[in-house]
Structures are given as C-alpha cells and as structure tokens.
Design brief:
The complex is a heterodimer of chains A (117) and B (114).
Chain A lengths: L2 E3 L4 E5 L4 E3 L2 E3 L5 E8 L6 E7 L6 E3 L2 E6 L4 E6 L8 E10 L5 E5 L3 E6 L1
Parallel strand pairs in A: 2-12
Antiparallel strand pairs in A: 1-4, 3-9, 5-6, 5-10, 7-8, 8-9, 10-11, 10-12
Chain B lengths: L3 E4 L2 E4 L5 E7 L5 E8 L3 E10 L2 E4 L7 E2 L9 E3 L8 E8 L9 E2 L3 E5 L1
Parallel strand pairs in B: 2-11
Antiparallel strand pairs in B: 1-3, 3-8, 4-5, 4-9, 5-6, 7-8, 9-10, 9-11
The chains are: A mainly beta (117), B mainly beta (114).
C-alpha cells in the first residue's frame, strides 16, 4: 500500500543550525514521484521540489538540499543555516500512476519546524 | 497570474445546512482535486477529477460531492455538513492527468460546522 511517513511531528532549532526533515515512503510501483511542500504560517502550500523514482541524484537549491535513497525508501530534506523564515510545516508527498491512467498523490502528516532567533 | 481560487476562505455554518466551496483555476489544467487538512493527519484526498465529467473518490469521500462540468471549475459540495467536517480544505490542480507535475494549491478554505 502507498504510504508516506514523517516521523518527526515537531522540530525546534535555533537560527543558523542545520536541520533535516525525514520522509520515508512505501510503494509497490517502480515509477513514482516524490515531492516536498512548505506551508508557512500564512497557510498556503508551496511546492519545493519534485523527484522521480529513476533519478537518485541529490539536489541542492540554495540552503535547501534533498537526499533521495531508494534503498531505504527515504527522501529527506535538509535546511542549512536555518532562518526564522523557514518556520513552517513541511509535507512530503508521493504520487503513483494507476494502470487505469489515474494517479494518486498522498501526503505525510507533516513536520512543523520552529526556528528561533 | 496563474492561480487556483477558492471561495469562501472562511465559513462558519450549522449542522445540516448545505454548502458549496467553489474552486476555479485559470491554468487550463486537466486534473483537479480536493484535500482536507487536519492536525496530525496531513492532507487527505477527498475527490479528484482527471478531466471534465470524470471524477473519482479519494480516501475520505464520505459526506462530500463534487462535479466537473467545466474544465476550470471543481466545486466541493457538503449536502448535510456535520461537525466532523470542520477542517481546512484545499483545492489543487495540475497540468496533466499523469503524476509528473506538482500540484498548484488554492489558499485554503477554513470551514467550521457547529
């Protein structure tokens, strides 16, 4: 069955610390996509990154980096030198394609990150 | 500006009073979906639509209806709201029916059912 687990409910760090948000997924498919979304206190959902199951290259975007490891079914997200503006809820998501042509995206429960000044 | 627009953003209603949350996107996206967000549960899919006149149930469809008569609109209907439908609702769309693209979300609609 399809499942996304974000075991960390809340994380609190002090500004400039590095922090890693964990995401572990389960799927029976060989073709799937993984996503991270950010939900700041204002409530909107912001897309951060997409990774397909055939691309295990890690990605870095400024202070953000993502580590995708199929061997451990993990897609972890690291923020380097965290800032107060990084305070948000972060969601990991998994998308699979059905044989019928439909697809489904499911989300983890989210990790709330507090960055203190 | 490309966007997904939901209305109303905030609503307080009473049990049993039918309501509709509208969702409209201006990106000509084929796929649209409704999610509800509850503390500790993340976002759970209510219904989705692969294209006009094509809708299907998500994980938590009970108590909800949808329709997709036009490509841009995907209203969520609560025929007889109950307190357990108090939640934050998000409409989302994406470019194609496949699973390759990211979801574009509306700003959310916070619903309270008394």
């Amino acid at each position: 069955a399809q499942k996304v687990t974000q075991a960390q409910t809340e994380i609190s760090v002090v500004e400039k610390e590095d922090v890693t948000l964990d995401c572990v997924y389960e799927t029976r498919d060989t073709t799937y996509y993984l996503f991270w979304y950010k939900q700041p206190p204002s409530g909107e959902l912001v897309f951060l990154i997409r990774r397909n199951s055939f691309d295990e290259q890690n990605e870095i975007s400024g202070r953000y980096s993502w580590n995708f490891q199929k061997s451990t079914s993990s897609f972890n997200f690291t923020i380097t030198a965290s800032q107060v503006v990084d305070s948000a809820v972060y969601f990991c998501a998994l998308s699979e394609l059905f044989n019928t042509g439909g697809f489904k995206t499911i989300f983890g429960a989210g990790t709330r990150l507090f960055v203190k000044a | 500006e490309a966007q997904v627009t939901q209305n109303p953003r905030y609503l307080i209603t009473v049990t049993g009073k039918k309501l509709t949350v509208t969702c409209s996107q201006n990106m000509n996206h084929e796929y649209m979906s409704w999610y509800r967000q509850d503390p500790g549960l993340g976002l759970r899919q209510i219904y989705y639509s692969m294209n006009v006149e094509v809708t299907d149930k998500g994980d938590v469809p009970e108590g909800y209806k949808v329709s997709r008569k036009e490509k841009r609109n995907f209203p969520l209907i609560l025929e007889s709201p109950s307190p357990n439908q108090t939640s934050l609702y998000f409409c989302a769309s994406k470019m194609e029916g496949g699973n390759t693209g990211e979801l574009f979300f509306g700003e959310g609609s916070r619903l309270t059912v008394l």
